[in-house]
């Protein structure tokens, strides 16, 4: 238990947990007992000290009551001599302060103060004189420090205007800043107060300071700067600077550990330059990189002190340590020991001995592994923060450093649309490592940033333009890595080079299966030496290499002749892993499976790409089959499409069931209604059935019915729905209901579609598949919105958002968000719509997906239109069109989306003829696809245009057609509700869907042939 009295009374357990000690009188008791730590205090003394001259009638019982309350939270014992609090002097800050002050460790002593001593118990009779004594000791300690900044001294002087020593310190500090007149003003003021209030003259000491100030003897003085010259600006690492400063405040040894090129030396130099002791000339820097023998270490440190020694080599180390200790013991000191890794044992012994000899010393060390001695505080120094797809990259530490160094070698270089992608790539591929970024920036003297990016695969030849004055191991990227590599043992070298096969790092099980049996102790040694990094994911360690180290390790693996064997084990391990986890992506263990896939994704992709390149057909097919569904669930469609294409290129070598499955997936990903070749789709579906693929791969339960439906083969689509519905697999049955709902919507059976969706949702929920649940909720929300129940739709979208967020599906989460925003706008709650847009934008920035932001532009424009912000909507429309055309996200839908948005903006502007033209484009695209729900929405939009043009008969016809095509009007749209109010309920029609489609085209002035 610890008690703090230098401020409000505070009690903590050993682990720092605060202890609630109760009311004012109990606080007085604990404070009084703590002033006699470990010693009994007589009851009579306590009564006098707590109540003074007015004790309660039954003072003994009152004291016992207080003690009883205190015992519930603090160790208080009754002994023959009185009551004793179970703490030692080290447990009470008052006594630690006095010990540190006596030892001359004034910064540490003063850091214990949290305010006025005994601040919250001053009403107790014992408190005032004790507090006065402590405050006097505090003032003396502050004065003994000798040098405080002007602001701190001014505050103290204002509080104690007659304290002459304090006035002298303030005068010295002001003169040191060149403020001689201010210093003389302080003297005049103090002299006047002494005369007026005490009738005395200033002391001789203060008069001497005054005279020195008059003579100009106290002007600014140069403080010895023994740190390496800083020729470049210091960029980034603000958090690390604060952390290290905090560690140095409480620990005597702080070691910055991290890989080569992380900037440990520069960071240590910056920390030392900002340390208060630097201004007092009490900081030294010893560079150990050039030291080859342990016995030379003391000599190098002495040379940093500009002290040399000679004599018998056998006596040299001992004499050197004595000389070093003598210099450092003259006051509080900070010693930087830079680059200890190659002398780690000698550096540890040297530092231990030095800290033992010099109590006022603090050591800041840099190393690629810890010194591993008692009292060491570690501060891991890793890469600078790097962007990962974010649009705005300017605030990332790696980018800031690269730009700073780039502008130095190529004036005028800046971050803009022409450079941002390359700068982002350089920072990411070079791991955000400062030295690598500086070497890359130096290349701008003779190369463009694009040329640098294109050559990053050959980084060790590329990055060789370091400073000529730097140490040889800091002039090239290869030399940086080789310095660390040469410090490894044979067993460490073996594991390190084999570890290169893991681009995404690995857990212990994978390393054991692929690299080395029982690798744990060798692996932890590589972690200690900053070759391998370790992170915890839900309590389990995962190991990884920085990309630059991994590239070097891969070279060593290639040279060893064992790469083929290790890569083979790597690929087979991930085939088994994906085969084990893929079925779980459609169960209640879905999130667990996704965690595994997210951690292993780059490894799986590397195994797959390698198998494709080496034409290991069955292995490639197994790896693709084991990860394809995860990609679809996460919305990684581009990677899925590319991988399916490349595996299918292996042709007839693929097993028939796999070829049919992947071809079906390829068609469904590319399918656009009305475009997919019906005969080819049917042939692929039959191949999946005949090869037995439908029994092996549950994803076909959705893919085959939808492929048939999208190719407008209704009969085949229903057959495949029935096949899936009869499956023994519950997920396949849920998928059948999901696909069936699409067909019922197309038939205009909205009630039947909703029942199918409800069954799908219940079944997906029962088996724990969040993807299916989120998809179904989105469909249900759109259906509810069409009934006019905006709030009901909002509730469903919010549930869908919760599920998509839990699933960590970026596409689904953004879609749910922007549909929420639009639905709020349709309901007229424009404030909520704006909040959802902001939330969606923040999500897109966080995940760094620019394609998703394109979709969001469309939603923002619609929200602005419904809020009456036409100018804003027009600007957003232009932005959306520019980005949508350049993006592959919307595919062939881009023309339709642009036309719909142009029509709505034109309506808001009163340009009804332009709106008609744009609406006609949308009618063309939706009718060509025979997409009935989308065609109904366009028909409603064209009806609105016709009404505004004064052509109400045409508007009524379009409303009737929209109602027939969808099965109902979109009564959640306030514009449609307004049309119904103006024109009346549309009459029911008895037409076929094909005839209705023809008539909508006719109303839009399009060919109906």
UniProtKB/TrEMBL annotation:
<dbReference type="InterPro" id="IPR049945">
    <property type="entry name" value="AAA_22"/>
</dbReference>
<dbReference type="InterPro" id="IPR036388">
    <property type="entry name" value="WH-like_DNA-bd_sf"/>
</dbReference>
<protein>
    <submittedName>
        <fullName>Predicted ATPase</fullName>
    </submittedName>
</protein>
<dbReference type="Pfam" id="PF03704">
    <property type="entry name" value="BTAD"/>
</dbReference>
<dbReference type="GO" id="GO:0000160">
    <property type="term" value="P:phosphorelay signal transduction system"/>
</dbReference>
<dbReference type="GO" id="GO:0003677">
    <property type="term" value="F:DNA binding"/>
</dbReference>
<feature type="domain" description="OmpR/PhoB-type">
    <location>
        <begin position="1"/>
        <end position="99"/>
    </location>
</feature>
<dbReference type="Pfam" id="PF13401">
    <property type="entry name" value="AAA_22"/>
</dbReference>
<comment type="similarity">
    <text>Belongs to the AfsR/DnrI/RedD regulatory family.</text>
</comment>
<feature type="DNA-binding region" description="OmpR/PhoB-type">
    <location>
        <begin position="1"/>
        <end position="99"/>
    </location>
</feature>
<dbReference type="GO" id="GO:0016887">
    <property type="term" value="F:ATP hydrolysis activity"/>
</dbReference>
<dbReference type="GO" id="GO:0006355">
    <property type="term" value="P:regulation of DNA-templated transcription"/>
</dbReference>
<dbReference type="InterPro" id="IPR001867">
    <property type="entry name" value="OmpR/PhoB-type_DNA-bd"/>
</dbReference>
<keyword id="KW-0238">DNA-binding</keyword>
<dbReference type="InterPro" id="IPR011990">
    <property type="entry name" value="TPR-like_helical_dom_sf"/>
</dbReference>
<dbReference type="InterPro" id="IPR027417">
    <property type="entry name" value="P-loop_NTPase"/>
</dbReference>
<dbReference type="InterPro" id="IPR005158">
    <property type="entry name" value="BTAD"/>
</dbReference>
<dbReference type="InterPro" id="IPR016032">
    <property type="entry name" value="Sig_transdc_resp-reg_C-effctor"/>
</dbReference>
């Amino acid at each position: 238990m610890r008690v703090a009295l230098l401020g409000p009374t505070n009690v903590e357990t050993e682990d720092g947990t605060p202890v609630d000690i109760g009311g004012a009188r109990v606080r007085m008791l604990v404070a009084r007992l703590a002033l006699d730590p470990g010693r009994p205090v007589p009851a009579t003394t306590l009564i006098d000290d707590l109540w003074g001259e007015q004790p309660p009638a039954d003072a003994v019982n009152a004291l016992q009551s207080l003690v009883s309350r205190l015992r519930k939270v603090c160790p208080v014992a009754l002994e023959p001599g009185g009551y004793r609090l179970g703490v030692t002097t080290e447990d009470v800050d008052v006594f630690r302060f006095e010990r540190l002050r006596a030892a001359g460790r004034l910064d540490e002593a003063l850091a214990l103060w949290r305010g006025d001593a005994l601040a919250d118990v001053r009403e107790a009779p014992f408190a005032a004189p004790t507090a006065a004594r402590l405050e006097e000791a505090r003032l003396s300690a502050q004065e003994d420090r000798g040098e405080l900044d002007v602001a701190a001294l001014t505050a103290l002087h204002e509080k104690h205007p007659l304290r002459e020593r304090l006035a002298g310190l303030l005068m010295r500090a002001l003169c040191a800043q060149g403020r001689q007149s201010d210093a003389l003003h302080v003297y005049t003021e103090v002299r006047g107060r002494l005369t007026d209030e005490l009738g005395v003259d200033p002391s001789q000491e203060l008069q001497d300071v005054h005279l020195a100030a008059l003579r100009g003897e106290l002007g600014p003085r140069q403080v010895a700067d023994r740190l390496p010259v800083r020729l470049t600006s210091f960029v980034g690492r603000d958090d690390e600077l604060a952390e290290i400063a905090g560690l140095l405040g409480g620990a005597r040894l702080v070691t910055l550990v991290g890989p080569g090129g992380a900037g440990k030396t520069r960071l240590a130099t910056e920390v030392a330059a900002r340390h208060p002791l630097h201004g007092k000339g009490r900081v030294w820097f010893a560079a150990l990189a050039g030291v080859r023998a342990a016995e030379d270490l003391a000599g190098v440190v002495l040379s940093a002190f500009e002290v040399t020694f000679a004599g018998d080599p056998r006596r040299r180390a001992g004499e050197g340590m004595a000389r070093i200790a003598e210099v450092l013991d003259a006051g509080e000191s900070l010693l930087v020991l830079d680059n200890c890794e190659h002398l780690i044992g000698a550096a540890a012994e040297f530092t231990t001995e030095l800290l033992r000899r010099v109590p006022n010393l603090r050591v800041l060390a840099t190393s690629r592994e810890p010194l591993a001695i008692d009292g060491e505080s570690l501060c891991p120094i890793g890469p600078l923060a790097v962007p990962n797809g974010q649009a705005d990259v300017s605030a990332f530490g790696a980018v800031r450093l690269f730009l700073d160094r780039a502008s130095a070698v190529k004036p005028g270089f800046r971050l803009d649309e022409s450079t941002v992608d390359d700068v982002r790539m350089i920072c990411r591929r070079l791991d955000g490592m400062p030295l690598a970024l500086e070497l890359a920036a130096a290349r701008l003297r003779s190369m463009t940033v694009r040329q640098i990016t294109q050559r990053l695969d050959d980084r060790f030849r590329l990055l060789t333009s370091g400073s000529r004055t730097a140490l040889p191991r800091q002039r090239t990227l290869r030399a940086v890595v080789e310095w660390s590599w040469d410090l490894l043992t044979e067993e460490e070298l073996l594991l390190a080079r084999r570890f290169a096969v893991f681009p995404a790092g690995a857990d212990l099980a994978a390393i054991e299966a692929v690299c080395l049996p029982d690798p744990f102790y060798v692996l932890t040694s590589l972690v200690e030496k900053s070759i391998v990094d370790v992170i915890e994911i839900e309590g389990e360690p995962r190991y990884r290499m920085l990309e630059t180290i991994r590239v070097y390790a891969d070279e060593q693996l290639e040279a060893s002749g064992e790469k083929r064997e290790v890569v083979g084990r790597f690929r087979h391990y991930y085939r088994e892993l994906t085969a084990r986890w893929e079925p779980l992506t459609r169960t209640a263990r879905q999130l667990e499976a996704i965690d595994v896939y997210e951690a292993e994704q780059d490894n799986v992709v590397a195994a797959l790409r390698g198998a494709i390149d080496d034409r290991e057909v069955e292995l490639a097919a197994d790896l693709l089959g084991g990860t394809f569904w995860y990609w679809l669930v996460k919305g990684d469609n581009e990677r899925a499409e590319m991988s399916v294409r490349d595996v299918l290129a292996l042709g007839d070598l693929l097993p028939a069931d796999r070829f049919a499955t992947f071809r079906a997936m390829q068609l469904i990903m590319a399918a656009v209604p009305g475009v997919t070749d019906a005969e080819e789709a049917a042939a692929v579906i039959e191949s999946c059935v005949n090869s037995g693929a439908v029994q092996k791969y549950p994803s076909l339960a959705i893919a085959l019915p939808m492929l048939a439906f999208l190719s407008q083969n209704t009969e085949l689509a229903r057959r495949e729905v029935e096949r899936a519905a009869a499956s023994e697999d519950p997920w396949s049955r849920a998928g059948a209901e999901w696909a069936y709902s699409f067909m019922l919507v197309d038939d205009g059976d909205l009630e039947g579609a909703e029942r199918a969706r409800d069954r799908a949702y219940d079944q997906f929920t029962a088996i724990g598949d969040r993807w299916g649940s989120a998809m179904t909720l989105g469909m249900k929300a759109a259906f509810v919105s069409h009934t006019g129940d905006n709030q009901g739709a909002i509730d469903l979208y919010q549930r869908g958002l919760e599920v998509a967020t839990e699933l960590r599906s970026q596409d689904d989460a953004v879609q749910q968000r922007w549909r929420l925003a639009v639905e709020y706008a349709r309901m007229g709650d424009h404030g909520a719509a704006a909040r959802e847009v902001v939330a969606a934008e923040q999500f897109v920035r966080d995940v760094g997906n620019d394609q998703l932001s394109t979709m969001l532009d469309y939603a923002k424009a619609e929200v602005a239109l419904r809020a009456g912000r036409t100018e804003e909507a027009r600007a957003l429309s232009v932005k959306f069109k520019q980005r949508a055309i350049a993006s592959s996200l919307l595919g062939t839908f881009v023309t339709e989306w642009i036309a719909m948005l142009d029509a709505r903006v034109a309506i808001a502007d009163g340009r009804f003829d332009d709106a008609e033209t744009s609406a006609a484009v949308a009618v063309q695209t939706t009718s060509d696809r025979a997409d009935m729900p989308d065609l109904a929405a366009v028909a409603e939009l064209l009806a609105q245009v016709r009404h505004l043009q004064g052509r109400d008969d045409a508007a009524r016809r379009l409303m009737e057609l929209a109602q027939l095509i969808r099965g109902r009007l979109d009564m959640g749209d306030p514009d449609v509700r307004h049309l119904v109010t103006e024109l009346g309920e549309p009459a029911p029609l008895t037409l076929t869907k094909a005839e209705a489609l023809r008539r909508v085209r006719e109303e839009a002035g399009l060919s109906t042939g």
